[in-house]
Amino acid sequence: MNPLSNITLRTSVGLLLAILATLVGGTWLTVKVTTDHLLYRNATETARNWAQYLASNVTDLEQIAAGEKPSSASMQFFRATARSENVYRYVIFNRYGYSILVSDRGAVTAVEVSDHSAMAAQSLKNIETIVDARAGTSAGEPKYFAEAFVPVMLGGRPIAVVAAYVDQVDARDDFFSSSLLAAVSLCGLTTIAFGLPAIAWLRRTREKEQAARRIHFLAHHDTLIG
Questions:
Q1: Beta bridge partners of 92
Q2: Cα-flanking dihedrals φ and ψ of residue 84, to 5°?
Q3: HSE toward the beta carbon, residue 129, CA cutoff 13 A
Q4: Pick from 6, 24, 61, 191: most CB atoms within 10 A?
């Protein structure tokens, strides 16, 4: 085989493998980015719906955020919704970002010593939902969850922030599986679309090299006989 042709063939094969490796890496990155985006949207929508549900059922939310004790009706609501669907924990902050009431693991308690949350304060300042998704590291936390801070408005002014902790283990698995299946299918189709022509080209190149060697051999053989 011509050394130059051999080098060209190896270069082409290496380039094809590099393209396929890039395609696989890009597919994995796409799956991760898509999953994270879907989880962010899921946590945001869940938290917003929960905050709106809470605000519409707790008529004294402004008074609670101001430090007053919840009414019996509000406490009954808090206990009944201590763990609702994917929201396994929630915290009510006042308009300065200090915690007032915590519902955690079925227990609803007023906070004796308030903790200040920079994200709760920022949520109220900018009137926006802030989501922080991460893997659980301590006991009692889901393997993957999102903490979403949602400002509660009354008459066009912010009165409190509800921080909803959303269990996203099942949603993450579902989103990841769906995204991975779609990405793998696309990757397979792309590989076939590029791979088959490349294989055909490599086969033709090899056949041409073999034909050239036969011609060279016959010419050399005829020269020796002549």
A1: 101, 162
A2: -120, 120
A3: 24
A4: 61
CB-facing half-sphere around the CA of 204: CA atoms within 13 A: 6
SS3 of the chain: helix, strand, coil, percent, to 5: 60, 20, 20
For the stretch 18-72, pLDDT in tens is 666 676 666 667 777 777 788 788 888 888 888 888 888 888 999 988 888 889 9
Tokens of residue 117, six digits? 């949350």
Please identify which residue in the block is written with the tokens 């719906």: 49
CA distance 123 to 116: 13
Q: Is 38 helix (H, G, I), strand (E, B) or coil?
A: helix
Coil vs helix vs strand at 134: strand
- Joined together, the tokens standing for residue 73 give 């009706």
List phi, psi (to 5°) of 208. Answer: -65, -40
Check residue 141 and report its DSSP letter.
S
